[in-house]
Automatic annotation (TrEMBL):
<dbReference type="InterPro" id="IPR015894">
    <property type="entry name" value="Guanylate-bd_N"/>
</dbReference>
<keyword id="KW-0547">Nucleotide-binding</keyword>
<dbReference type="InterPro" id="IPR027417">
    <property type="entry name" value="P-loop_NTPase"/>
</dbReference>
<dbReference type="GO" id="GO:0003924">
    <property type="term" value="F:GTPase activity"/>
</dbReference>
<keyword id="KW-0399">Innate immunity</keyword>
<comment type="similarity">
    <text>Belongs to the TRAFAC class dynamin-like GTPase superfamily. GB1/RHD3 GTPase family.</text>
</comment>
<feature type="region of interest" description="Disordered">
    <location>
        <begin position="602"/>
        <end position="624"/>
    </location>
</feature>
<dbReference type="Pfam" id="PF02841">
    <property type="entry name" value="GBP_C"/>
</dbReference>
<dbReference type="Pfam" id="PF02263">
    <property type="entry name" value="GBP"/>
</dbReference>
<protein>
    <recommendedName>
        <fullName>GB1/RHD3-type G domain-containing protein</fullName>
    </recommendedName>
</protein>
<dbReference type="GO" id="GO:0031347">
    <property type="term" value="P:regulation of defense response"/>
</dbReference>
<dbReference type="InterPro" id="IPR003191">
    <property type="entry name" value="Guanylate-bd/ATL_C"/>
</dbReference>
<feature type="domain" description="GB1/RHD3-type G">
    <location>
        <begin position="35"/>
        <end position="278"/>
    </location>
</feature>
<keyword id="KW-0378">Hydrolase</keyword>
<dbReference type="InterPro" id="IPR037684">
    <property type="entry name" value="GBP_C"/>
</dbReference>
<keyword id="KW-0342">GTP-binding</keyword>
<feature type="compositionally biased region" description="Basic and acidic residues">
    <location>
        <begin position="516"/>
        <end position="568"/>
    </location>
</feature>
Length: 654
């Protein structure tokens, strides 16, 4: 069997033949070959709403699930396509495309209700596909969810039958995705943009404040069911991909022919499903693979066909019985394999065999624990213990027989020279008895030194010697060298040795019985030890899952409170923003006026500066002119003085 299956296209998993649901054997055989954990995505919705197109995209193909291009519903029953998971190695993505709900050709909606219920029961992600917005009409069309408690039982005792008792349903139910096709509205509330998820949460809020309480309860019932049954919810909106008649031929159109926003929305949808869809799980944290999904399909469909209500507990118990029986066989097969590899008969001691048995038994119990679940009252574990105990008893018996055969053959070989001597009359003479006893002791020593005799070595030897007692006594009585008294003493000695040997054999048998009893107790202790470890592990997983669920609920409450707080905060922020804008406008006006006045002042200052600069330049020019005139006068005066001094000096010389 392969763990990964290749399906070129979808096959019908559950046929709808004239309103009768029948599991398809071909599809069941395909599931039986998938040993990997499965992520099961089912899509449900009104007929002719484009469900198959989305499923083909999840399969990574343009065609596969039938799309159709008329007003007639194409998909009948539930179709399955198993493909390798694109983001989770070692997992298989199982896509379930259901026939359209509300097909007028079917007459009544009983069949639709069962299709809806089966999609819930089998999937780990449930996609509800509808056209347009989430309004009261869309809620009314989703009336199937309000009938789930009338069509599904979580336990065999029918005491959980209301929305208020939905906690058990939640643990079994898949994640919910609402796909809104041909969505044309703007996602806004009070002028502010919102996400598709926020749009879904707003749409699921309960209606209050109407005068008609009964009508209000009726309107709120589907909302309440969705909120209770599906804690994890997601919403995607898809614009119309094309206009006109082309809408019926999506499979033949290329991406460039489709609206770009629609292509992006489909890609987001696929990305979410691939990354966030979980493995299908059973209660107790049991991962579902192909054979387990097959068992669930058979159990649910047979129950519906017989007029009963699908019961999750019964389905799991039925599955557990099948798998636990197979786990017992798998454990026994492993035990046989290990013992055939390690055990060489005969063993020298019983303990050697018991040690090998215990080691192989431990592995067998471990493999049973790994492959079994919900073994109520340890019925199958007890079966395994009985089978292993029987196997041990059979091996002990075979070991005894192998040892006996080996010892008998060895005795025949070792003592044959002695018997030949007896035939030739070597010991039928005076002193022959002592020679016979010496030879007998020599043969016994040789026998005892031979290896590989096993657990029956002493017992087989004593039986052999007992068979030779008549011969020994005959040789004793014919030995004329011995007196009658000596012969009597020898006879008593032989009897004492024989009694001693018998006592030794009985003691060994008692030890063997004690060993077997001790081994039985150890085997049971090993079973109980591994069972306790498994139960503790399962309890830890259950507590962890409960904690996660509580955290999840707490997270949802926190997110709701946070959302309300954020909405309030956003309103306050918008109010503050408006006030800030008003203040800012006032400041801008004031700043403009200030800048205007400052500009005027600067312009006046600049004019004054220019005027002062011009005045300074004139004064500077005047100063330079005066300095020039003064310099010229000084130079002229200095020249006159030099001239007068020179004249005076000349006059003096004369």
């Amino acid at each position: 069997m392969t763990s990964e299956v290749y399906m070129p296209g979808p096959v019908c998993l559950i046929e709808n033949v004239k309103g009768q649901l029948i599991a398809n054997q071909e599809a069941l055989e395909i599931l039986s070959t998938i040993n990997q954990p499965v992520v099961v995505v089912a899509i449900v919705g009104l007929y002719r709403t484009g469900k198959s197109y989305l499923m083909n995209k999840l399969a990574g193909k343009k065609t596969g699930f039938s799309l159709g291009s008329t007003v007639q519903s194409h998909t009948k029953g539930i179709w399955m396509w198993c493909v390798p998971h694109p983001q989770k190695p070692g997992h298989t993505l199982v896509l379930l495309d259901t026939e359209g709900l509300g097909d007028v050709e079917k007459g009544d909606n009983q069949n639709d209700c069962w299709i809806f219920a089966l999609a819930i029961l089998l999937s780990s992600t449930f996609v509800y596909n509808s056209i347009g917005t989430i309004n009261q009409q869309a809620m009314n069309q989703l009336h199937y969810v309000t009938e789930l408690t009338d069509r599904i039982r979580t336990r065999s005792s029918p005491d959980q039958d209301g929305v208020e008792d939905s906690d058990e349903f939640v643990s079994f139910f898949p994640d919910f995705v609402w796909a809104l096709r041909d969505f044309s509205l703007e996602l806004k509330v009070n002028g502010e943009p919102i996400s598709p998820d926020e749009y879904l949460e707003n749409s699921l809020r309960l209606i209050h404040g109407t005068a008609q309480k009964d009508k209000e309860k009726e309107l709120n019932f589907p909302r309440l069911c969705i909120q209770k049954f599906f804690p994890k919810k997601k919403c995607f909106v898809f614009e119309r991909p094309v206009n006109g008649r082309q809408l019926g031929h999506l499979a033949s159109l290329q991406d460039q022919d489709l609206d770009s926003a629609f292509i992006e929305q489909v890609a987001d949808f696929c990305s979410y499903v691939f990354s966030c869809s979980k493995v299908k799980m059973l209660s107790g944290g049991i991962k579902v693979n192909g054979p387990r999904l097959k068992s669930l399909v058979i159990t649910y469909v047979n129950t519906i066909s017989s007029g009963g209500l699908p019961c999750m507990e019964n389905a799991v118990l039925s599955l557990s019985q099948t798998e636990n029986a197979a786990a017992v066989q798998k454990a026994i097969a492993l035990y046989d394999q290990r013992m055939s590899q390690k055990l060489q008969l005969p063993t020298e001691t019983l303990q050697e065999l018991l040690d090998l048995h215990r080691a192989s038994e431990k592995e067998a119990i471990k493999i049973f624990m790994e492959n079994s679940f919900k073994d109520i009252n340890q019925v199958f574990l007890t079966q395994l213990e009985i089978k292993l105990e029987t196997k041990r008893a059979e091996l002990i018996k075979k070991n005894v027989q192998a040892s006996s055969d080996r010892c008998s053959a060895l005795l025949q070989d070792v003592f044959s020279p002695l018997e030949e001597d007896v035939k030739q009359g070597i010991y039928s003479k005076p002193g022959g008895y002592r020679l016979f006893i010496l030879k007998l002791q020599e043969m016994k020593k040789k026998y005892s030194e031979e290896p590989g005799k096993g657990v029956q070595a002493e017992e087989v030897l004593q039986k052999f010697l007992q068979s030779k007692e008549g011969l020994s006594e005959a040789i004793l009585q014919t030995d004329q060298t011995l007196t009658e008294k000596e012969k009597e003493i020898e006879v008593e000695h032989v009897k004492a040795e024989a009694a001693k040997a018998v006592a030794k054999i009985r003691e060994e048998m008692q030890q063997k019985n004690e060993q077997l009893l001790e081994e039985k107790e150890k085997s049971h202790e090993e079973s109980m030890k591994q069972l306790t470890e498994k139960m503790e592990k399962e309890q830890a997983q259950t507590r962890e899952m409960q904690q996660k669920n509580e955290q999840k609920k707490g997270h949802e409450r926190s997110m709701k409170q946070l959302t309300e707080k954020m909405e309030k905060s956003q309103a306050q922020m918008r109010e503050m923003q408006q006030k800030n804008e008003q203040v800012l406008q006032q400041k801008e006006k004031s700043l403009e006026e200030s800048m205007k006045q400052l500009t005027v002042m600067m312009e006046k200052s600049q004019a004054q500066m220019r005027k002062m600069q011009q005045t300074n330049e004139q004064l500077l020019r005047q100063k330079k002119h005066q300095e020039k005139l003064l310099t010229e006068k000084l130079e002229k005066a200095q020249a006159q003085m030099m001239e007068e001094q020179d004249k005076a000096y000349k006059d003096k010389l004369k």
